[in-house]
Amino acid sequence: MNWFVRAANRLRAPSAPVLHIAGDEGEGPVIILIHGIASSAVTFRRVVPLLQDRYRCISLDLLGFGESPTPVDATYTVEEHVAAINATIRSLGLSAPFILVGHSLGSLLAVRFAAQYPAQVSRLVLVSPPAYLSQSEIGDPLERARMGVYLKAYEFLRGNKDVTMATASTISRVLQLGTALEVTERNWNPFVLS
Q1: Which pLDDT score, from 0 to 100, does residue 132 have?
Q2: Torsion angle, alpha carbons of 92, 44, 55, 70, to 10
Q3: With a cut of 50, which residues of the chain have pLDDT below it?
Q4: Are residues 129 and 98 in contact, defined by beta-carbon separation less than 8 angstroms?
Q5: Which helix (H) or strand (E) holds 30?
Q6: Given CA atoms 119, 120, 126, 131 in this order, what sign does their dihedral have?
Q7: What is the DSSP secondary-structure string of 40-75?
Q8: Nearest partner of 21 among 91, 93, 70, judged by Cα
Q9: Which residues, other chains included, contact 98 with Cβ-Cβ below 8 Å and sequence gap of 6+?
């Protein structure tokens, strides 16, 4: 009976969406590139040309970002992101382990993916991984104050949608980032919940 219940639950469990593959360029060992929050695979537009003569570079848009799906019922947990990354990688039918590169939020997701599917990852590259300590764990008073300011700014941005979207748009325009920094109506929930 236990086997029957487990099988029925698997049949009912919704499958993770397949993400948008924004780029699949080059030949050779595979590198999968996962961007950070408030961005898309466009983050890697200047990196891929430097690698594609030696590697097959596959860049993904995370769940809710770029051209990937934004499921109505998604809560954008690490588990949901990793399940969608896994569904996408499975859809590629890769036969050999690959190099997994994560930037910022993508680093956290890459680490979780590698922990869950170690046989699939030959190397793990983390670019600007966010590592946060609680304020009470920071001994230096100046660093503790900086972290406090950062956390207050972050909470302000999460709580003020119009200001955040306008600020992201202005920064993108001034720094000529294109869509490398993008907080819009479409990706607001993924941004806040991720």
Answers
A1: 74
A2: 0
A3: 1, 5-6, 8-12
A4: no
A5: strand 30-34
A6: negative
A7: -GGGGTTTHHHHTTTSEEEEEPPTTSTTS---TT--
A8: 91
A9: 29, 30, 31, 32, 89, 120, 121, 122
Q: Is the four-CA dihedral 64, 67, 68, 74 of positive or negative sign?
A: positive
Find out whether 105 and 36 touch, Cβ atoms under 8 Å.
Answer: yes
Give the residues across from 23 on adjacent strands. 59
List phi, psi (to 5°) of 101.
Answer: -115, 130
> In this structure, what token pair is assigned to residue 23?
């780029």
The residues that bridge with 141 in the sheet, in sequence order, are none
The candidate with the shortest Cα–Cα distance to 117, out of 32, 193, 50, is 32
CA 96 to CA 121: how far, in whole Å? 9
pLDDT tens-place string over residues 126-155: 999 987 777 788 888 998 888 888 889 888
pTM to 2 decimal places: 0.85
Q: Half-sphere exposure (CA, 13 Å, Cβ side) for 62?
A: 34
Q: E strand or H helix at 130, and its extent?
A: none
What is the model's pLDDT at position 147? 84
| Residue linked to tokens 């961005």 | 39
